[in-house]
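Reviewers of the previous submission asked for a worked example of the structure-prediction workflow described in the proposal, so we include one complete record here. The input consisted solely of the amino acid sequence. No template or homolog information was supplied to the procedure at any stage.
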Amino acid sequence: MLGRAPTRRITVNVSAYLVGLLFSAAMTLAPSTAGAADDPAQDKAGDEAVHEVKVRIEARNCASAVDRLKAWLTKDMPKVALLAGTMYEHGVCVKRDWSKAVPFYTLAFDGGLTEAAERLAAGYADPGNGPDIAAALWWGRQGRSFNVPFCSVSKEAADDPDRFVAELNTWKPSRLAGCNYVVGVMSTVTAELKYPKLGVAHQVGGDVDLRFFPGQARIEVKQADAREYALLGWVDGDTLGDRRTKKVTGVFEKTLSEVANRALARYPQPAGLPADAKIDVRYNFNIE
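From that input alone, the workflow returned the following structure tokens.
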């Protein structure tokens, strides 16, 4: 594509409901802002800072990446804190250390990035980090993809950490394990799902259905619809023609499938979940 870059808002809208086990909810994901507060100047500065660090990571210049990360962390930027948490969680240019990732994710969440709550929920649910089921469920409630009556506490305990933990201590181990599994998988998918670059480049969108069977440790993904948006600036013929190829129109299904498979592989399935329980989710990839 030639000409100026798109300036439209790019979002992933999500509607989810569970038949037979857990929940009904509606959510909106904005991967370009990760749920940040509406502060365009801060958002732009955060994007530029993160880009600067990522360029160095991609060039395998870890020393420079870490130096720039440290410098940007002094500027109180939620997106930089989110990046720092991700680097420590996954051991990117630093030694993997979940305990160091947590405070950075917490800073990012306090700065308005809901994705940080989902990464905390997913991380605490991960057996490699414990797991800490109470923390996973607590942070899962703060995210965009986990509103589960079966895994919810009373209103009195919902905002009181001590009462929250005390109530969880009355649950059966099978319920705790099942909820930890579902919050881990769903939070991982929500946190890691991003609008694919190929979709942005060709200004296309679409709807993709995800069906999660917790009792079968299985996720099905199927594209339901595709949309084209007006291209901005000068456009070459190849770009215009490629918009309707399967490589472009199917990129949303491919992206979601890859994230879902990573989420399933991350968490061992606990015993005792009903085989017919399912979570149906529709992801709407939109350019406004």
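The chain has two domains: 34-192, 197-287. We consider this example representative of the routine output the project will generate in years two and three.
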